[in-house]
Specification:
Elements (H helix, E strand, L loop, with lengths): L5 H7 L3 H30 L4 H6 L5 H11 L5 H13 L13 H38 L5 H15 L3 H15 L15 H27 L2 H8 L4 H12 L1 H25 L5 H10 L3 H29 L4 H4 L1
Helix pairs in contact: 1-2, 2-14, 6-9, 6-12, 6-14, 7-9, 8-9, 8-12, 9-12, 10-11, 12-13, 12-14, 13-14
Amino acid sequence: MATITLDSLGARVRSPWAGFLLRRTWRLLVSLAALVTAAFAMIHLIPGDPVRAALGTTADPALVEARRQSLGLDQSLPKQYGDFVGDLLQGRLGESIGAQMPVSEIISGRLPATLQIAVPAFVLILLIAVPVGMTAAVLTKDGRGRRGELVFTGVTGLLGAVPEFLLAVGLIAAFAVAWPLFPVASRGGADSYVLPVLALTVVPAASLSRIVRVETLRVLGEDYMRTARAKRLPARLRYLRHALPNLLTSSLTLGGLLFSSLLAGTVLVENVFAWPGLGTTIVQAITEKDYPLVQGVVLVYGAAALLITFVVDVAVAVADPQSTVRGS
């Protein structure tokens, strides 16, 4: 009997859109299944007893056994895996060993704080990187502005190489200690958001602006841009109506990857600024050996990255129906 895969099934669907969505959805589901399995295995690959490690070596054996039973760790691995998947399908992520409360409640309470700095940073990165990269490309195309090109590549290369946690410490030293313009740490008023958002913005904006410049130079060399110049269209129309839309496909792809990396990058920045988000939560959970909580945060980060990639793939296919993404 022949084996029918989702890819072969998608190839048989007459509508290109139906086949594309079928293949992408299948890959998303397979990736999510792999993520869930890896998260489940994580707690069982840790040497020793995770409950004993979390409660301490001096904890009462009866208490340790009771916690193991409440977490289902006394069951067989297949039974634990089935219960784990069943709980996930119902929106349950287990119970924290330390806090003794549902992991989903802890994450739902901390996730908004992470998004409150990640989303503004993402928007600010695009608002900075795209205009700067396009402007640098226009000023340095056809070998012009060699000095400006060296300054641009030097500054962006230097900023792009600075670790985010080191940049965060530098911002605190400069604008919270030397010049006390903003709070040193913790979440408070609107001014407390400035330094964490900047710490998340500078490095990705510098790196993305370099990529936008290269992509803009490629677009400016296309035939339709030469035609637009031959028609003596104003520069504003050439760049905004013809160049910018053709940067959309690569910008969407890079933007999705960028937002995924931002969620992970918040771990370091949140801990520098004592920001009460998922970043500080996972570090505290690792320190306290609260493995169910670590497991839940890893699942949230991983699922967010996969879903963002899926949405970006669909958005790219909508923006550019002839792209290889849609035909893959």
